[in-house]
Amino acid sequence: MKSAVESSAAPGEETDRQPLPPGWKSYMSPEGLRYYVNSSSKETTWRRPSSSAGAPQRPLAQQNSSPYANGCHSSTKKGQPAEAMNVSLRKPMHKQPPGSISPAKRQIKEVKETKITINCVTFPLPGEGPEQQLLKPNEWSYCDYFWADKKDPQGTTSVTGFEVLLQKQLKGKQLQKEMAEFIHERIKIEEEYAKNLSKLSLSPLAAQEEGTLGEAWTQLKKSLHDEAEVHLKFANKLHTEVEKPLLTFRGDNFKKDLKKYDHHIADLRKQLASRYASVEKARKALADRQKDLEVKTQQLEIKLSNKTEEDIKKARRKSTQAGDDLMRCVDLYNQTQSKWFEEMVTTSMELEKLEVERIEWIQQHLRQYTTLRHETDMFNQSMVEPVDQLLQSVEPAKDRELWVKENKTSEVRPVDMDI
Amino acid sequence: MKSAVESSAAPGEETDRQPLPPGWKSYMSPEGLRYYVNSSSKETTWRRPSSSAGAPQRPLAQQNSSPYANGCHSSTKKGQPAEAMNVSLRKPMHKQPPGSISPAKRQIKEVKETKITINCVTFPLPGEGPEQQLLKPNEWSYCDYFWADKKDPQGTTSVTGFEVLLQKQLKGKQLQKEMAEFIHERIKIEEEYAKNLSKLSLSPLAAQEEGTLGEAWTQLKKSLHDEAEVHLKFANKLHTEVEKPLLTFRGDNFKKDLKKYDHHIADLRKQLASRYASVEKARKALADRQKDLEVKTQQLEIKLSNKTEEDIKKARRKSTQAGDDLMRCVDLYNQTQSKWFEEMVTTSMELEKLEVERIEWIQQHLRQYTTLRHETDMFNQSMVEPVDQLLQSVEPAKDRELWVKENKTSEVRPVDMDI
Q1: d(CA A320, CA A203)
Q2: Radius of gyration of chain B (CA)
Q3: Does A403 touch chain B if contact means CB atoms closer than 8 Å?
Q4: Binary contact (B418, A67; C-beta < 8 A)
Q5: Where is pLDDT greater, at B414 or B71?
Q6: Burial of A376 (0-12, 13-18, 19+ CB in 10 A)
Q7: DSSP for A308-322, written as a single string
Q8: Measured between CB atoms, which of B121, B150, B381 is closest to A377?
């Protein structure tokens, strides 16, 4: 979106291809729509003016929303109940006085309120103004959904949409820390398990079993130590490939960067609020001036006082000045809002990208966890095989031979005694 | 082996097919060899006698060992140093007196000692007697190698070969108990591990992670509980399929049965010892009688005394009686030894069978252990798969959609303020 600046026709835009009549300039609204302003008559219109200058165009009342209203009055109306506090609504200001029509006044008609300003940010009312297209359709992008402030449940303060996005990123940092903690706990469990298995593998229980059965038993005991090694290796890899990365991903600088974003956007909001205050002040001043002019004009007509035409001209001049002031204030406000808008889009897209990266990074490292688990089970399985092989080659006959050779008491049988 | 009883020719045995000359009988020795005895002349020989009765056969000195020596003397000689105490050796008793030859005396020659009795059990001396074939060649069978007693290292007592075999079986029972203990310790380790994993699976860490990543994380945590279940199952199966069987295999009755064997064999040894004592006593009595006869004969010849022929006949009769007694004692001894021999063979074969069964039973149950280990690792692996699948389907875009729908603050962008 661009600021409301004077601009030539955009490509593809429908134009009359006629030069504008004198006094008329064309501008592009933030929505990307072209409008036209006559700075002398203070008229604004969506319709490209024809060469008959000076004549009022289609009255504003019949137009939807115009970027700038006539300097004399403002054109928002009270719509649905405000979502937040500090809603600034402006009621229609004037009735047409019977019979007295001044060029400026002639423009004053009852106009629909089409916009609403909440917390100094201006939105179109529902159903008013051209339908908005999402900046990034079908993407559920941050830049489309976080313009308004959110009232907090207690109802006393509100939080900007941007804050919500920021909090999400900070939360993400906390969650990754908690995941690291979880992995750490798993590591401790594995180390304990390994320690216990290793200790038991050194047990002298049944160490006196001999022969092929003894060998198989010895290997069975040893396999516990091998299993322990597998689990220790698992624990170590968990630490270096999952826990540590989870802890160190996006260090302290990350929080600092987020804070910078936070302050920058908050500053722009403050500026906006300040501009908005100026607009409200200028509006009031204009209202006062217009009232004064009206009163004086009435008084002249009914010869209530000795006010001269001179006084009325003065009042009218002041009124016009106030109108100009208001226009300038509104213009400045809109510029500031546009700047904030741009920064919001840029920064929220940055946060969106950070979130995608965060999710993908965590996904990758948790897959490393499952890979390590899988590996561990496979290694563990292979620790049993030597045991099974030795068990398969247990031979009672061989064991008997070994034992008998070792323990026999004689190789000679008794014979009968001779006399 | 059979007792030394009168028997007819065994099948395949070489015979002269002549009837034995009168006075001769044939017997089978414990070694399974046939020998012949002339009960009147008290001759014994391996060679089948020919019809010329009464004549002395090949002198004993030229024969290897004869089952029964001539009633007048015993025929063992001092051989290698005795392995155990209570070795009973008998020296050659007589020299041939010059000129005086009585029928009995004429048989007395110097004979080699071919047997040795150790702890009341009689063995052939090395190199003496027919070579012994193993009862169960190439099998290293218990029944071939545990006839002798074993001196214990301190040198004060000895232990029978049978005791050695029995101790092995009792040891085996202890070893199986120790194996059960080992398995029990493994079970405890598994239960602890399962408990820890299960507890950690309930951790609320990073529970606030949402969307597809949150789902994957939730499943990851849950998988720890699934792993815990696998290990618990392993522990339970270890208990019912390995530990408990190891504990209950061969219950208390086994020890009782072994004790029965122990006592039975020990009793037979006691009987043998008692018979042996009788033999020794009879031998001594015979020696006394023969001495007496000799003295009296000498005295007669040198007219030393007024001993009559009558006295000498009496002395000779007593001598002969003593000889008969000795023969009977030796016969009883040999019968008892044969009985003990038979029981030893039977029982040691039983123990041998028990040992084979023990080894095979343990082998089978330890293979059950490795099977369970293998299964456990496989089940464990499958617990990781759902986690990995969910991780694979993590989609940052989807998560953004879900989160934005839930947390968005507006769907409308700001627009410029109108005047």
Answers
A1: 102
A2: 42
A3: yes
A4: yes
A5: B414
A6: buried
A7: -HHHHHHHHHHHHHH
A8: B381
Do A394 and B122 lie within an 8 Å CB cutoff?
A: no
Task: State whether residue A82 sits within 8 Å of chain B by CB.
Answer: no
Interface of B with A in 122-181 (CB under 8 A): 122-124, 126, 129, 132, 135, 139-142, 144-150, 160-161, 164, 168, 171, 175-176, 178-179, 181
Q: Which residues does chain B have within 8 Å of residue A417's beta carbon, measured at their own beta carbons?
A: 115, 117, 122, 279, 330, 333-334, 337
Residues of A in contact with B417 (CB under 8 A): 115, 117, 122, 279, 330, 333-334, 337
Query: Which residues fall within 8 angstroms of residue B248, CB to CB, at 6 or more apart?
Result: none
**Residue-wise pLDDT tens digits, A103-143:** 444 444 556 788 999 999 999 988 877 889 999 999 999 99
Highest-scoring range by mean pLDDT, A20-34, B81-95, B105-119, B314-328:
B314-328
Return the SS3 of A25.
strand
Q: CA nearest B337: which of B167, B119, B128, B125?
A: B119
- Nearest residue to A179 (alpha-carbon basis) of A321, A42, A368: A368
Residue type, B381: Q
Residue B276 burial (C-beta neighbours within 10 Å; 0-12, 13-18, 19+): buried
Q: Give dist(CA A72, CA A92) in Å, integer.
A: 11
CA distance A339 to chain B (A): 12
> How many contiguous H segments (helices) and E segments (strands) does chain A have?
8, 8
Closest CA to A49 of A64, A61, A62, A34: A34
ipTM of model: 0.73
| Other residues' Cβ atoms within 10 Å of the Cβ of residue A4 | 23
The percent of residues in chain A predicted with pLDDT above 70, rounded, is 74
Q: Do A384 and B374 touch (CB under 8 A)?
A: yes
Contact A413 B142 (CB under 8 A): no
Contact indicator for A49, A20 with CB cutoff of 8 Å: yes
pLDDT higher than threshold 50 for residue A95: no
Other beta carbons less than 10 A from residue A296's beta carbon = 20
Residues of chain A found within 8 Å of residue B145, distances taken between Cβ atoms: 404, 408-411
Chain A nearest CA to B173, separation (Å): 10
Q: Which residues contact B252 (CB under 8 A, 6 or more apart)?
A: none
Give the count of beta carbons closer than 10 Å to the beta carbon of residue A289. 21
Distance separating alpha carbons of residues B61 and A76, to the nearest angstrom: 149
B146/A408 touch (CB, cutoff 8 Å), yes or no: yes
Q: Which two tokens stand for residue B102?
A: 């009585």
Look at residues B71, B25, B68 and name the one whose alpha carbon lies nearest to residue B333.
B68
For B117, which residue in chain A has the nearest alpha carbon?
A417
Task: Work out the burial of residue A185: count CB atoms within 10 Å of its CB; fewer than 13 is exposed, 13-18 middle, 19 or more buried.
Answer: middle
Contact assessment for residue A273 and residue A120, using Cβ atoms and an 8 Å cutoff? yes
Residue B365 tokens read as 């149950």
End-to-end CA distance of chain A: 132
Cβ within 8 Å of B, A 383-402: 384, 387-388, 391-392, 394, 396-397, 399-401
Residue with tokens 């401790």: A188
